[in-house]
Amino acid sequence: MDQQEYGRYLLAMGGEEFEIEEDEQVEADHLYGFFQWFMPSGAGVERVFEPISGGQRFLDRIRPIYEMLNPEDFTGEYVPGYFNGGHEGASEEVLRGLGQELIKGLESLFSIVPEDDEAADIAKEALHDLA
To answer: Rounded to whole angstroms, how far apart are CA atoms 68 and 102?
Structure first.
């Protein structure tokens, strides 16, 4: 399955409303907000990853995002348009820990940019800013 076939496969999950012309190319804009289609429970999202090699790994990563959503937020006239999870407060310690984890992850990503890569200067600047 090539990218266009996969894109059409994904759009078919949305029904007729999301069908495109046979000669039309699937573009990123066609799939804007795609994972919101499965909110709040994530029911059916497993089909997204079935045709992908190692798809279970991706499914395992996205499931917790749906689990953080509160289904009650989706019962009124207006529902969340983004993955805004929970309304529980978090302590300063928890927030700092999450922030530090994020910074370490970003540092790790920026540090693997090879010196001869055109983005090396940007990566160095980002590492400096994170420090």
So the answer is: 19
CB atoms within 10 A of CB 24: 11
pLDDT tens, residue by residue, 79-112: 887 877 666 678 899 989 999 999 999 999 999 9
In b/e form, how buried is each residue of 52-89, taking b as 16+ CB within 10 angstroms?
Answer: eeeeeeebeebeeebeebeeebeeeeeeeeeeebeeee
d(C-alpha 16, C-alpha 36), whole Å: 17
Residue 66 and residue 24 in contact, taking contact as beta carbons nearer than 8 Å: no
d(CA 6, CA 51): 8
The pLDDT, as a whole number, for residue 73 is 86
Residue 86: the pLDDT is: 62
